[in-house]
Amino acid sequence: MISVGVVGLGYWGPNLVRNFHTSARTELAWLCDHDPERLEAIGRQHPGVRRSTNLEELLGDARLDAVAIATPVASHHRLAKAALLARKHVLVEKPLTASVAEEAELVALAETVERVLLVDHIFLYTPSVGKMAELVSTGEVGDLLFFDSVRINLGVFQHDVSVLWDLAPHDLSIIDYLIGREPESVMAVGASRTVDGLEDVVYLHLDYGNGLLASLHLNWLSPVKVRHFLAGGSYRSILYNDLDASERLKVYDRGVDVSTDPAGLRDVLISYRMGDVIAPRLDATEPLFRLVEHFVDCIERQTAPISGGEQGLRIVRVLAAAQKSLSRGSERVRL
Amino acid sequence: MISVGVVGLGYWGPNLVRNFHTSARTELAWLCDHDPERLEAIGRQHPGVRRSTNLEELLGDARLDAVAIATPVASHHRLAKAALLARKHVLVEKPLTASVAEEAELVALAETVERVLLVDHIFLYTPSVGKMAELVSTGEVGDLLFFDSVRINLGVFQHDVSVLWDLAPHDLSIIDYLIGREPESVMAVGASRTVDGLEDVVYLHLDYGNGLLASLHLNWLSPVKVRHFLAGGSYRSILYNDLDASERLKVYDRGVDVSTDPAGLRDVLISYRMGDVIAPRLDATEPLFRLVEHFVDCIERQTAPISGGEQGLRIVRVLAAAQKSLSRGSERVRL
Amino acid sequence: MISVGVVGLGYWGPNLVRNFHTSARTELAWLCDHDPERLEAIGRQHPGVRRSTNLEELLGDARLDAVAIATPVASHHRLAKAALLARKHVLVEKPLTASVAEEAELVALAETVERVLLVDHIFLYTPSVGKMAELVSTGEVGDLLFFDSVRINLGVFQHDVSVLWDLAPHDLSIIDYLIGREPESVMAVGASRTVDGLEDVVYLHLDYGNGLLASLHLNWLSPVKVRHFLAGGSYRSILYNDLDASERLKVYDRGVDVSTDPAGLRDVLISYRMGDVIAPRLDATEPLFRLVEHFVDCIERQTAPISGGEQGLRIVRVLAAAQKSLSRGSERVRL
Amino acid sequence: MISVGVVGLGYWGPNLVRNFHTSARTELAWLCDHDPERLEAIGRQHPGVRRSTNLEELLGDARLDAVAIATPVASHHRLAKAALLARKHVLVEKPLTASVAEEAELVALAETVERVLLVDHIFLYTPSVGKMAELVSTGEVGDLLFFDSVRINLGVFQHDVSVLWDLAPHDLSIIDYLIGREPESVMAVGASRTVDGLEDVVYLHLDYGNGLLASLHLNWLSPVKVRHFLAGGSYRSILYNDLDASERLKVYDRGVDVSTDPAGLRDVLISYRMGDVIAPRLDATEPLFRLVEHFVDCIERQTAPISGGEQGLRIVRVLAAAQKSLSRGSERVRL
Question: What's the pTM?
Answer without folding.
Answer: 0.92
